[in-house]
Inverse folding.
């Protein structure tokens, strides 16, 4: 292991020299966190995370890079379009130059952006921009006071903020439904296969959009497709002709907002149904109302914890396995309080990319009738002592059943009603 010895303080300017001339320019881009798999020699922040430096344009044709630690105000770093003043710092060994002591002299006009709510967690969520190019994180503290409760797929307005190399959404406000009337949807459903899922936290892909390969049946239905508004039907046909002629297959992009259920993201290779929509401004086509063709499984609730639980799957390729589920995946809100161990439920199994394990979603009760052995545990009676349920009666050495209730002698005849009741109960327990 190497260590530094004979450390000597050098005079200022021995490693880097800061030119005295004050420069003025405009922020073109802010620093961003780099890709995890990147091996570039980009500068690192205090936490050791590689970042992509920001860029300042000055003197018409010159550009200078900078990182967040080069700003004078770390709590309110500059945003794109801000006018700033700075000094040029030059590294004596490499000759590279960067901007230091960056301070804002005039902030750019803040423009409100619009988008859709695509995820809501315990204390934060994500919005997808109206152009479907990226998703932005927001904390519930960023929601404006007096804003109505947010739900998935709500249309919202927000302001884009930059902090710590990341982009955030702030000043969230819910819009009236139909405010973002930007697309026209076709009335025909098609089939396809997921070639690339949407970007997630574990993905190394830089592309946010996913890709669906349209099946042969979907290509045949393109000719019969109709769009509300004649000018947009040509865009769909042109997309099919140009894509098929160059690649041999028809590929359509989709995002999280395109999913019929934003909580259930399809994975690579999944078969899906979807429809096409055309963006009015750009005439671009994209998939919407994407539904995954997934089997429905049945099982019993095996255990319940605080906020989550496990289901013992009874059929399909997961038979005999216990599958994790979160309480937020229960379809009816009132069922969350009634859900107990032993309840029969139906659910869909998806692959959790973060944990690499199957997870149950869209959980719903099949019925509200509880098994008799479990109903006795919760309903009526004294619960102070242990409860015992007879599952099977013992057998005599000769194979006959034992421990039958003694028959009572009534008026010279035997009362066999208790014996018959015992035998029928015993037979039902064995079955």
């Amino acid at each position: 292991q190497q260590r530094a010895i004979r450390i000597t303080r050098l005079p200022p300017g021995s490693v880097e020299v800061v030119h005295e001339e004050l420069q003025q320019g405009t922020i073109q881009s802010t620093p961003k966190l780099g890709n995890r798999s990147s091996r570039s020699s980009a500068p690192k922040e205090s936490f050791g995370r590689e970042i992509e430096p920001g860029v300042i344009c000055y003197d018409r044709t010159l550009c200078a890079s900078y990182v967040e630690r080069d700003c004078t105000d770390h709590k309110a770093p500059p945003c794109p379009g801000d006018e700033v003043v700075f000094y040029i710092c030059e590294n004596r060994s490499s000759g590279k130059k960067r901007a230091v002591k960056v301070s804002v002299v005039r902030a750019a006009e803040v423009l409100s952006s619009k988008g859709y709510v695509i995820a809501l967690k315990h204390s934060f969520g994500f919005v997808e921009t109206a152009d479907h190019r990226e998703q932005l994180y927001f904390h519930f503290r960023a929601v404006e006071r007096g804003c109505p409760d947010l739900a998935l797929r709500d249309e919202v307005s927000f302001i884009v903020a930059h902090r710590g190399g990341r982009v955030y959404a702030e000043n969230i406000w819910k819009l009236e439904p139909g405010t973002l009337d930007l697309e026209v949807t076709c009335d025909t459903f098609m089939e396809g296969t997921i070639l690339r899922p949407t970007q997630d936290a574990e993905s190394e892909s830089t592309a946010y959009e996913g890709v669906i390969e349209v099946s042969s049946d979907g290509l045949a239905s393109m000719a019969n497709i109709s769009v509300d508004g004649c000018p947009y039907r040509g865009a769909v046909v042109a997309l099919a002709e140009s894509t098929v002629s160059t690649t041999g297959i028809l590929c359509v992009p989709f995002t999280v907002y395109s999913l019929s259920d934003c909580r259930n993201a399809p994975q690579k290779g999944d078969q899906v149904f979807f429809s096409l929509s055309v963006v009015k401004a750009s005439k671009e086509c994209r998939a919407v109302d994407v539904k995954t063709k997934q089997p429905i499984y049945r099982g019993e609730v095996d255990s319940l914890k605080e906020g989550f639980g496990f289901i013992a799957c009874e059929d399909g390729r997961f038979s005999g396995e216990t599958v994790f589920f979160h309480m937020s995946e229960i379809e009816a809100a009132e069922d969350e309080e009634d859900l107990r161990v032993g309840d029969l439920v139906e659910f869909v199994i998806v692959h959790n990319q973060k944990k690499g394990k199957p997870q149950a979603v869209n959980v719903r009760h099949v019925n509200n009738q509880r098994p008799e052995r479990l109903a006795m545990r919760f309903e009526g009676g004294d619960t102070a002592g242990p409860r015992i349920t007879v599952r099977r009666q013992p057998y005599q050495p000769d194979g006959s059943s034992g421990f039958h209730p003694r028959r009572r002698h009534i008026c010279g005849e035997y009362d066999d009603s208790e014996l018959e009741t015992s035998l029928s109960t015993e037979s039902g327990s064995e079955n």
